[in-house]
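Please predict the structure of the following assembly.
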Amino acid sequence: MARAESKKLKEAPEKTTRIQEINRRLILDAALDVFSTYGFRGTTIDQIAERAGMSKPNLLYYFPRKQNIYVTLLEETLTEWLAPLAEIDAEGDPIEQLRKYITLKINMSETHPEASRLFANEVLHGAPAISDFLTKYLKPLVDEKAGVIRRWVGEGKLAPVDPYHLIFMIWATTQHYADFDVQVRAIMGSQVGRPGFKEQTAQAVLSIILNGIRPRN
Amino acid sequence: MARAESKKLKEAPEKTTRIQEINRRLILDAALDVFSTYGFRGTTIDQIAERAGMSKPNLLYYFPRKQNIYVTLLEETLTEWLAPLAEIDAEGDPIEQLRKYITLKINMSETHPEASRLFANEVLHGAPAISDFLTKYLKPLVDEKAGVIRRWVGEGKLAPVDPYHLIFMIWATTQHYADFDVQVRAIMGSQVGRPGFKEQTAQAVLSIILNGIRPRN
DNA sequence: CTGCATTTTGACCAAGTAGTCAAGTTTTTG
DNA sequence: CAAAAACTTGACTACTTGGTCAAAATGCAG
């Protein structure tokens, strides 16, 4: 948009042409598919280029290194992926807030399983590209929400439970359906595709977790 | 290559020498470390050979293909990994049986995180090497145990809950601590190493799940 | 239309890696 | 102990793959 820079100045810091915008998008979309399936090492630039419908040198014109595509993709994905956590409202009803959070996560696992797998693969391999992100951005966010949950527990609105482990449990359970999809399908077979499966999953997960943390007396 | 008929018996189908036993073990142990960290594609035979303390051609003398090592390792690991599930006793007390199962799984995640990661990585990438195993061995086992749980529910010994989703939840939650160890550490920091952390984890997981499925009236 | 900037690609290169091979060394066995 | 079998490895091959480059094609402002 900012077309700006007059022609004969020094190297312009950055301008984005229409073609650039289109092709970067094509590349990133293709890369998400491929990286999430084969992992970083298992993916070749040729694969991404083919899926994006362009030649390898052309792809490298937009992202000079394989790493660049991968990191850009992770950054772009992660913020979105964590958004639901940030939305937990300390002033809301605990059970309702957590129900909403879990529901959102299950939906995301269904609609964007590639994002989940991309992330899972990265973390599984030691998070070499995003360890900074984990400590600088994720940890503070989790700390804050853990504080909220701890307060709820203190007020007797939830059964006594370690907030960090509760959050891990929600992550693990919801992402399981994206990350281990093949296994889920191998076991549950045709049920997985059927309409209503997602609702059934949400129902089961919500039932166990929410009853597990509902205050008892 | 007419091999000696001079010996009276035909070629023995397989015999294992002392050296073979030692070296296969060395290779598989080394391979587990490397494969579980870098995945199949991310691992080189040289890496495994070096870690096993032998030359690459020597390693290939025992396992002619990289795939062979990988598959052998998966087979060896999987049976052991699933053993606890098989131990769930239909005649036992439901809550006690599940408590035992969850506890065993958490212990395994702590003592053999590499096995968990090896498996997670394989499934995450579509289980190309073990899809047969999943349908032929894992599915029947899970079906059987799901039947047991369903019966418990029918007898009112557990809250109404889908047995498959319950099993997935237990898998997801317990393996999370092995597979996403880096993330858990990034968030919980020094606590992870501390003695008692495993117990605290087990306590939290057990508390939520068991209370989530305890019969209500 | 013209000329410059942007985009595109075929051909190529260097590094890395799975797997081979033939020739040596060690272990087993009769 | 000597021959056979089992084991070990340096050197090598064939192939994959990340990345380069120079030249051609296309887009676009004046």
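Residues 7, 17, 19, 44-46, 56-57, 60, 64-66 of chain A lie near DNA strand D (CB under 10 Å from a C1'). Chain A touches chain B through 56 residues (CB under 8 Å).
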